Amino acid sequence: MAAKWGNCSRFTISRKLKKLGFTPKKNYGYQERDDLEREEFVLKLNQIDKKKYCIL
Prior knowledge:
Layout: H1 2-5, H2 10-20, H3 35-47
């Protein structure tokens, strides 16, 4: 885009795209999530004695 519009900053390109109706889209989830692996991990966590947990 910068090559097409000349020497301009990312901020300028962002403002122009916003005026045209293009806004950044947020991704609210991990796309490659494997539910089976997640269940297995939760089962492993539940086997650990909760007194040994140290969450930072």
